[in-house]
Amino acid sequence: MDDPDHRAHWLRLALTEGVGPQTARELLARFGLPGDVLAAGFPALQKCVPEKLALALCSEIEPAMQAQVDATLEWATQPGNHLLTLADAVYPQSLLTIPDPPPLLYAKGRVELLSHPALAIVGSRNATVQGMQNAEQFARTLSQSGLTVVSGLALGIDAAAHLGASAADPRSGSTIAVTGTGLDLVYPGRHRALAHRIAEEGCLLSEYPLGTPAIASNFPRRNRLISGLSLGVLVVEAALQSGSLITARSALEQGREVFSIPGSIHSPLSKGCHRLIREGAKLVESANDILEELRWYRPARTPDAHAPAAGGPAGNEAAFAHAASARVLHAAGHDPASVDQLAERSELAVPEVQAALLALELEGRIERLPDGRYQKLMQ
Amino acid sequence: MDDPDHRAHWLRLALTEGVGPQTARELLARFGLPGDVLAAGFPALQKCVPEKLALALCSEIEPAMQAQVDATLEWATQPGNHLLTLADAVYPQSLLTIPDPPPLLYAKGRVELLSHPALAIVGSRNATVQGMQNAEQFARTLSQSGLTVVSGLALGIDAAAHLGASAADPRSGSTIAVTGTGLDLVYPGRHRALAHRIAEEGCLLSEYPLGTPAIASNFPRRNRLISGLSLGVLVVEAALQSGSLITARSALEQGREVFSIPGSIHSPLSKGCHRLIREGAKLVESANDILEELRWYRPARTPDAHAPAAGGPAGNEAAFAHAASARVLHAAGHDPASVDQLAERSELAVPEVQAALLALELEGRIERLPDGRYQKLMQ
Question: Is this complex's ipTM strictly greater than 0.95?
């Protein structure tokens, strides 16, 4: 994955207008790696994407895009900066279980945190002081218990959650900020120092190309990554009609848990939380309620259990993913099989099966059929 | 049912030691009316009740019990007083659906209310002022919508619910108090005026014989009548391990709805409410939430707008004090907060905060909790 050409192909694919996560997934499933997509030629491409997009993918790269690719590759050489492709071992496994994982992620900081069990904490930008204190306290306890706290770097609840998680002792779960802009920009501007701190102690993550400014429509889309990276989403304070409720909905669609903190019936910022509880979110009064619900019994980390930050992705996790792929491949047999069937046969959890299937699909060893089932490909 | 002999039989049956609602129901099912039970004779009675009880039922009535029967029949001749037997048409139909309806009920006031659709409102005796205001407001709206509000005449939430329901206009649903003592006694003593008012505008109800003092074990049993008379039970504020949770459990056993008002996760009196919500009670933010859930569409009558208090502080000093109050009030948010927290949030000195708090407390805009923290009251 350190081959710059290889990464240039991923970048070109991801940067091409009209290639969203869904299209990228389809193209990769059909042709293999991005280099194969770009070399497939117009007739083949035209069969699965609109003509204009097929043309863009098989033409000579335009100078402006070449410059952007070069600048991004240069950015990625700087200490702490990372480009993560869907095919990378350090690409967050949790995102492989959502329907639309970004083909390319930009990260700044401790990328190994992306494979940690995580919990998202979100809420209003116009939070109350009590709400921010709650966010900070919940984040601190969850982080001390070894969970990484994911949020969106916004004012209010988000910031309090990041601060609470990074204020926990250095062996804690730390924090990940998923931003809605390119990672070379900070939004909101007054969170420059916070973003810097997270890049040091935790991790900043974005699916948006460098230079992408704050565009309103990008933020709700970004929310699916906040929930996707997490075992569950805690909503601390939220008005009706707020972005936090979008994140909660993403979480439900992705099969994640939703937790909600109740409050006064006279507080407008509790109304969103109360609606979520009515709709089935778990009412929580303390971080321990969340840990119990997740059956997360791991106490705060001990020094010897702490993986060194400089070590890169843990070998264990990669080995585990590999073993899971082998089991799923074995379980697939020769007939089409559904995810549930594969989970039952392989005795793996559904998200693990989904992650393995995506990896196998990218490796060209298994095929996703139009009806959603999977078919092993004979080599 | 106005035949005194007939009623004397019901009274004797109900007053006999060892005849609870369950035994009474079995005896009546077997023999017919109470006169038939008393005439059944020892051999027949012995087949379904213990020997001692069979003997008591078929013996000559003892003078002390005869005196009690006579006094009760005399009490029932006074205006507003009623004895209701299981066989009476005015016996509350709703209680016939619970497993253990009392054979005899003592009522004082508008007995026709006992056949109205009703909702119970219960909660802590040590309620916060905000909790009592909530109880009163919910009760007023429910009563204005035509529902009768049932509660237990206790201090705190119960009293606020009765007051809210009886403060509604005279065509409203009014209120029923189910007491744990004989109806010739009032417990707690300081609710004498309230009990008198309910006997005028609403209805007092008890299953306990005249003269029964406040006995701790009678109150939890009484709770089954509060829920039994109602379509559902609203718990406004409740500690863990409280009588309100017993009423909620009765409601569930009787197939009634349970509604619960959420609150700050830092308030001990919300913990019982939160537990109920976790266990499946409906979280409600307003009386309309209850009406919708019950599909009770009769609209609430428009309440008179509250006239704002006239006058106010004047001069610079007063203006400054006013500004400090406003800042403290703003800083208070919706959760309980300590003086130090309020000083930090409002950026005022502690003495200024204390002065503002005192003024706000006197104006009824903030409440001092037993633990020394302060809670903003919603007007």
Answer: no
